[in-house]
Amino acid sequence: MWIDPQACQGCVLCLKACSAKAIRVREGVAHILPHLCVNCGDCFRACPHMAVRCRTTPLEVVRRCQHPVAAPSPTLFSQFGYRATPNQILLALERLGFQQVMDMGWLCEMNSAAMEEYLLAHPELRPGISPSCPAVIRLIAGRFPSLLKNIIPVLPPRVFAGKVVKERLAQRQGWDLAEVGVFHIAPCAAKMVGPHDPVVLDHPYVDGVISFRDIYGPLLQALHGLEEDHTLQKCSGAGIAWAMSGGQAAAVDVEHTLDVAGFAEVVHILEMLEAGRLRDLRFLEAHICPDGCLGGPLVVENHFRARSVTLRQMRRFGAMSRVNRAKIKGMISEHLFDWERPALPRPQPVLHHDTGQAIAKMKAIQALTTLLPGIECGVCGSPDCQTFAGDVIMGRAQEAQCPFMEKRGGPSGESAGRVAVKVKDVVEALGLTVTAGAAGLERPVDGGYISDLLSDVMANARPGALWLTIQTHQNVVAVAVLKELAAVILVGGRQPAEETAAKAEQEGIPVLVSQAGAFELAGKLHEMGL
Length: 530
Prior knowledge:
This protein has 530 residues and is α/β, with parallel strands linked by helices. It folds into four domains: 1-37 and 47-53, Alpha-Beta Plaits; 59-333, no CATH class; 351-416, 3-methyladenine DNA Glycosylase II, Chain A, domain 3 (Orthogonal Bundle), CATH 1.10.15; 421-527, Udp-n-acetylmuramoylalanyl-d-glutamate--2,6- Diaminopimelate Ligase, Chain: A, domain 1 (3-Layer(aba) Sandwich), CATH 3.40.1390.20. The chain is 38% helix and 12% strand. It has helices at 13-17, 42-46, 59-64, 86-95, 104-121, 134-143, 157-173, 212-223, 237-240, 247-251, 263-274, 303-317, 325-333, 355-371, 385-393, 403-408, 423-430, 454-460, 475-482, 498-507, 518-527; strands at 2-3, 23-26, 29-32, 52-53, 67-72, 100-101, 128-129, 180-186, 208-211, 257-261, 283-287, 421-422, 433-436, 444-445, 448-450, 466-469, 487-490, 511-513. A hairpin with a 2-residue loop joins strand 2 (23-26) and strand 3 (29-32). Helix 5 (104-121) crosses helix 13 (325-333), helix 14 (355-371) crosses helix 15 (385-393) and helix 19 (475-482) runs parallel beside helix 20.
């Protein structure tokens, strides 16, 4: 993905759409941070100005190639309604000038069989993660590197197709490899980087990637008046539905499979796996796009209708794979499906290589975050307040870029003309009683939070806040330490339990008592400027 600065209006819609938080808007123009981007294409969907572009291969390159080979995703079969058959679509690609057209649905069935054989041969791998979605692989490499070992080391169909063409078909046809071009026809942006970012290959087997949007018009014209004088389709319904969410999980015949689609949902499942949950899971099919490749950003057809078309085709051609298992085992023994090198982590930038400096920066980010409004407006050019605070501390943004900070006259402390309030100042101003944790009276205070639900405080209270509550048990202190709260104020004259006071003394968390109720006390804190 890349952004055309001439077309970009700085509207921040792409910024808000990016689940990976890989976009910043600076000086009215959006920029993509390559080390964070997984090429999911959500920014492409969101941009109303067509400023977000995908690096696709134009059809002119195909026409200049001496021996062009098409390797279309089986999702292409879902883009032309109920009447067009997969075989007709493959024949139409021949009419466009491709010398050879691969039935990728057939290769997808091979891929499922190869993954199944690998899982059966490696019962210790739990779960095996499908390598088909390049955006998921990049997400794992960047944010969940401990799960790289779970990715099944079987080449995805698009790469396997290129390898078969370059190592077998070209030799059989007597083609000069320098004149052979393998072009994958894809529904998503992530596969656009495949030829340039092969991840597990020493060199790419695919020479270019054509988007559905670029080829749809010419292909639609080629379908008119088409005569089916020969058959290119080999796949069953299992191959046709392979790229749809759930298609692989249905095709890989092992117990306990799971399919998940959508960025947030994939992240949630990967977090569960990293935490050691889902131990009984045997195979995970994960797609960044909703409904799998049917919901790719470069498709033409609505993914709900595309799913309906795919299901009808699957029923028509049968859900049972036609792949010869003996042949697959032979190809496995010849290492045709093997990765050429392991997938490596994509290290994210660290706050600092020195641990002490990194901790100091983390605390500075947390402190600045407490001063920001938390409305996640994106006006500053960062996706949210915490990310903006990180950008500021790391020197990638200026505090003045936040209009809220400018309105308040600056970020913090005396340097901004704002008097820093400490716990002891609140005690003196409101006549509170210090029952425990006097060692923490010098803590700075920024705001307050009222709640009697510990889970709510853990989820929503900000560091540096005063916690107003009626709870008196010792878990209150544990939550205050966890959330780095300034102090706990027990309202309505309530006194802390004996063990609570002891724990507060140990942790240095001030426990204060007010005779006033929470509502009245909150008003007085507001009058103090908190």
